[in-house]
Amino acid sequence: MSSMPRVPTPEPTSSPEPPTAAIVGCGDISAVHLEALQDLQIDVVGVCDVDPERARTVAQRLDVPAFTDHRELLAATTPSVVHVCTPHAEHVPVAIDVLAAGAHLLLEKPVADSPAQARVLCDAADAAAHQGVRSGVVYQNRYNPPNQRLHELITSGALGRVHGARAAVTWHRTAEYYAARPWRGTWTGAGGGVLMNQAIHTLDLLLWMLGPATAVRGQAATHALAEAIEVEDTAELLITHDGGASSTMYATNAYPVNAPVSVQVHAELATATVAGDLVVAWNDGRSETVAAQAPGSVGRAYWGDSHRILIEDFYARLGEEAPFWISPRDGLATVQAIHQVYDASPALRHPADARS
Ligand SMILES: NC(=O)c1ccc[n+]([C@@H]2O[C@H](COP(=O)([O-])OP(=O)(O)OC[C@H]3O[C@@H](n4cnc5c(N)ncnc54)[C@H](O)[C@@H]3O)[C@@H](O)[C@H]2O)c1
């Protein structure tokens, strides 16, 4: 009886180790990152906060080590990805160390508290990218379905020539909001107010959709919260985009409620309005609606619903050759535009040494 031909036993295929995560900065937004990581079943290997109590509380809940120095966390836990959720002035110093340790960087907005610091980060991220280290910025509103669709309609040419866009961010922030986290109201901690902290998402959407800014004019001032904060609570901008369209934006933290952010694009073939949902009113009478709510969202509505989706996408793309599509250079563009407004705002009590 002839025996079955002997087939070589295949070597067990070595699947890559699943990525691990660490969080630096255990404040408000870290909860959204941690919830997303739990949802995605990504192991958190350590957390860090300069406030030992805050670090310990989160670490105990997750049953992971707590650190008060991010360099010790990097050395002890060697995470694949570090989520940087610190105040603005503490973004670049932490991010540079993360990249130097060879960990992928997921950085909360704004990338830096000044254009000079943002450029330092971009150079470090470019150098790290040559070693396969990824950097991504949390502009999660780009993932909102209405914004995705509007971007597609513009860039595919479906709307025809785009004349321009107008945007409004009219939110409510009290003196107590700033007192709870004193860095938020200061030039040294936050590098700016409503533009740098809140409306930067919408500014990013305008630059993403209509193209890079070739000129930015505007004014910023502190109307309602002058007793409580150094930074601006209100601003208006006129942006000229590469390609000829122009956009205007109004932003304030002095509105009585957190109203939905609105972005309206006027184009040759339609007017498209995002205010929660996207409604496209075509000149020929057709209309199209895209609902705002992303499935499975965990973020608070006015932060944008798409933190979890961005985080999932960042991890999913780690194996790809291409850099993550929302880069530190996108972050630099927004910080630069904001500083053009600060530089043109004599009423602002902006320290001259931060105007770079
Ligand atoms: N993408 C969004 O929609 C969104 C929403 C809210 C906040 N954010 C951003 O998230 C970041 C944090 O904001 P927040 O509201 O959570 O602030 P927060 O003050 O609540 O938390 C920041 C934490 O970082 C800690 N910290 C400060 N310096 C540190 C350092 N060097 N190393 C380790 N920990 C340090 C603080 O002690 C604090 O616990 C900011 O950049 C903010 O703009 C983004």
TrEMBL record:
<dbReference type="GO" id="GO:0000166">
    <property type="term" value="F:nucleotide binding"/>
</dbReference>
<dbReference type="InterPro" id="IPR055170">
    <property type="entry name" value="GFO_IDH_MocA-like_dom"/>
</dbReference>
<dbReference type="Pfam" id="PF22725">
    <property type="entry name" value="GFO_IDH_MocA_C3"/>
</dbReference>
<dbReference type="InterPro" id="IPR000683">
    <property type="entry name" value="Gfo/Idh/MocA-like_OxRdtase_N"/>
</dbReference>
<protein>
    <submittedName>
        <fullName>Predicted dehydrogenase</fullName>
    </submittedName>
</protein>
<keyword id="KW-0520">NAD</keyword>
<feature type="domain" description="GFO/IDH/MocA-like oxidoreductase">
    <location>
        <begin position="148"/>
        <end position="271"/>
    </location>
</feature>
<dbReference type="Pfam" id="PF01408">
    <property type="entry name" value="GFO_IDH_MocA"/>
</dbReference>
<dbReference type="InterPro" id="IPR036291">
    <property type="entry name" value="NAD(P)-bd_dom_sf"/>
</dbReference>
<dbReference type="InterPro" id="IPR052515">
    <property type="entry name" value="Gfo/Idh/MocA_Oxidoreductase"/>
</dbReference>
<feature type="domain" description="Gfo/Idh/MocA-like oxidoreductase N-terminal">
    <location>
        <begin position="21"/>
        <end position="128"/>
    </location>
</feature>
